[in-house]
């Protein structure tokens, strides 16, 4: 017979999952209800209400797709794109590449705007692509590129898309809950995310919101959506109030957890939460730079919840990560694709973004580097981080 | 601020979700690990091992798809079927219809074998369709049709399919863990299920197993799979031992829960579990028939975990279900599609299949019928159930 599973202690500082608050773990263990039970429909209403809050939107169609963030991406694309449709897609990392692949797999034409990884797509590049190309169904961009730590500016893109009658599709998998994702203000038509990043809920659901413009495109399709499971026109009938028609069985326990995780976001408040992510990110970057790990993106394009730093060639990055995990129980991420073996990705997302975690991580990293002979003086990174924290006025207990 | 969510007490006797054992709820609340953490990869290995056990298969490709049972269905179809491929599909209920829809949405040609709901597809009908049609990519059948309570015989279908060089795709969403699903013995090439039925785990994962024949069809596709999220050739690289390449973030907490739910199945043993489902089903059917609710399928084609009975026209079925839910906290299912308002679906699945639940349900039903004036003598259904139980030799405490 198989033994009980007792997980080792872990501090999750990678690209996700992030640490999960005990209240969310407890919510997962709540006894189940039927997916059409009036009491469960109340949970769904709460989740929709709270998702509108974190997306900063009034879109009635705001739901959680029954799959991980990648299912959210696929739902966003396969509902909007019909065979032959052109979509402009920013490609500056793994998730932009994935968007292009998903577009092509449903018969769309991906117009790739390719720039070096770590950089962001200049708005002029998008504007010129919109001018140059014929009719374009949508522009798809990754707000927070988890493979490079780059933060895509979105301020002007929404109106550009409206001017060219294109929908704006935004991947907010890593950004939602850790930096502003102002869906209405930015004019985002399709925005999807994931639960296991800055919302600090286990992976398994993909928050998704659609503008009325996006909804009418979806409802006016010439061809049926290739996916039945992710067909948002059908899913809408279950999530929409009033109708609640059976489509597929909702992942009940995960929705309990998401409700509680979103409640924690609401209790903290978005501005406080955003400031917390920014502060801890500045502190960890200061510490890392002191150790000669340099962030890949330029200062103004760095994400506050995911820091991607290049590892100097003399350092065996895999050996360091292994010691961090095995000795200290700290998980950080390695590089993906062409960045494999060259960068680390340190996530300070949601519950993981705390001063305690920044200090614990930097201290452990220094110890490992000293052990390998790649650093001589202990405490230099901690000191750099302390300087950042000391600049901040302590108004209240800082998470 | 939103209140704590305190679910009402429920006895889940509908078509799923079923009751979840406290050990499984507790497993859900286990702190998270990274999805590439060696300790988590161990959990995945355990899940694969236990899934092979319940599927009665040695197929190396045995995994849990990151979505509900409907995602399992979609994964099964979109990986096997390419545009233009013909698939013979048995249509005798909602889930056969859904299979045909999914086949058509990925460009396949669904050859529907339609028979009245509640009946099963005769093997001769499948054989003649295989003879009549040109090359057929697969035969797709629903083992346990949740909308009608019918149990599809599968004994001869596997060899028929092999004779005609077609794959056999089986929907075991409702059957797995409650009746034998002997994947290897029956020659099933693609078999998918769900967690919230007889495995008594919350909804959110779809167990799926592929034969080597199915795998080579998938790896030899002329066109890429339309779904990136459900592309089993890519998913295999994460689940396959040795490689463990990142595809999408696994639903970690749900996999903890599935491991524990499968462990409970292993501890009980499949023969005992199957016998328990059969016995409680016989008892509930005896009670219902005493009240003049007749099962839809013939005796030999009745499912042991889901009983679908026709409701006599003088009974307001929705009013009874509402009282069962509101007064007794008991959920049973109504009819779907053309059976809406005409049948009830009583699920005794996994943890829900107990003598206590059968007696509690029959007693509550009698009370409601008496209250409405549709029954005069209390206890008749209970007595009929007791007669069934009394025929069984009590070897040990009967769940």
What is the strand and helix layout of this fold?
2 copies of one chain form a homodimer.
Chain A: E1 11-12, H1 22-28, H2 38-55, E2 62-65, H3 69-80, E3 86-91, H4 94-105, E4 109-114, H5 123-132, E5 138-142, E6 144-145, E7 150-151, H6 157-163, E8 167-171, H7 183-186, E9 190-192, E10 206-210, H8 212-219, H9 232-239, H10 252-268, H11 270-290, E11 294-295, E12 306-310, H12 317-328, E13 330-331, E14 333-334, E15 343-347, H13 355-372, H14 380-391
Parallel strand pairs in A: 1-13, 3-4, 3-5, 5-8, 8-9
Antiparallel strand pairs in A: 2-10, 6-7, 9-10, 11-12, 12-15, 14-15
Helix pairs in contact in A: 1-10, 2-10, 11-13, 11-14, 12-13, 13-14
Q: Total number of β-strand segments of chain A?
A: 15
CATH topology (fold) name of the largest domain in chain A: Aspartate Aminotransferase, domain 2
The number of helical runs of chain A is: 14
The end-to-end span of chain A amounts to 43 Å
- Average residue-wise pLDDT of chain A: 96
Order of helix and strand elements from N to C terminus of chain A: EHHEHEHEHEEEHEHEEHHHHEEHEEEHH
How much of the sequence of chain A is in beta strands?
5-15%
> Any idea what the shape of chain A is?
globular
Q: What's the story with the biggest beta sheet of chain A?
A: 7 strands, mixed
* Helix share, percent of chain A: 40-55%
């Amino acid at each position: 017979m198989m033994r009980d599973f007792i997980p080792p202690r872990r501090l999750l500082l990678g690209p996700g999952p992030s640490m999960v608050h005990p209240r969310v773990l407890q919510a997962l263990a709540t006894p189940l209800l039927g997916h059409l039970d009036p009491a469960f429909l109340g949970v769904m209403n709460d989740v929709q209400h709270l998702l509108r809050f974190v997306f900063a939107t009034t879109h009635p169609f705001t739901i959680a797709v029954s799959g991980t963030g990648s299912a959210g991406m696929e739902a966003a694309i396969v509902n909007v794109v019909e065979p032959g449709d052109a979509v402009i897609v920013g490609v500056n990392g793994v998730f932009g590449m994935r968007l292009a692949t998903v577009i092509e797999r449903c018969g769309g034409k991906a117009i790739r705007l390719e720039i070096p990884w770590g950089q962001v797509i200049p708005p002029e590049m998008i504007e010129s692509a919109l001018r140059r190309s014929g009719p374009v169904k949508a522009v798809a961009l990754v707000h927070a590129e988890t493979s490079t730590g780059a933060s895509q500016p979105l301020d002007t893109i929404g109106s550009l898309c409206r001017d060219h009658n294109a929908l704006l599709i935004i991947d907010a998998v890593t950004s939602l809950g850790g930096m502003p994702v102002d869906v209405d203000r930015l004019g985002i038509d399709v925005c999807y995310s994931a639960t296991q990043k800055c919302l600090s809920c286990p992976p398994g659901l993909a928050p998704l919101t659609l503008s009325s413009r996006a909804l009418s495109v979806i409802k006016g399709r010439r061809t049926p959506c290739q996916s039945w499971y992710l067909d948002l026109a059908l899913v809408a009938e279950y999530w929409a109030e009033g109708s609640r028609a059976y489509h597929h069985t909702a992942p009940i326990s995960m929705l309990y957890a998401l409700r509680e995780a979103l409640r924690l976001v609401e209790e903290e408040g978005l501005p406080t939460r955003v400031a917390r992510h920014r502060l801890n990110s500045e502190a960890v970057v200061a510490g890392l730079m002191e150790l000669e790990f340099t962030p890949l993106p330029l200062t103004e394009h760095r994400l506050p919840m995911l820091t991607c730093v290049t590892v100097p060639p003399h350092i065996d990055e895999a050996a360091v990560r292994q010691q961090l995990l095995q000795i200290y129980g700290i998980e950080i991420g390695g590089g993906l694709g062409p960045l494999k073996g060259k960068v680390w990705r340190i996530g300070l997302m949601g519950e993981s973004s705390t001063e305690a975690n920044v200090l614990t991580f930097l201290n452990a990293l220094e110890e490992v580097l000293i052990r390998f002979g790649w650093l001589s003086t202990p405490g230099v990174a901690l000191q750099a981080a302390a300087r950042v924290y000391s600049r901040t006025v302590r108004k209240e207990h800082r998470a």
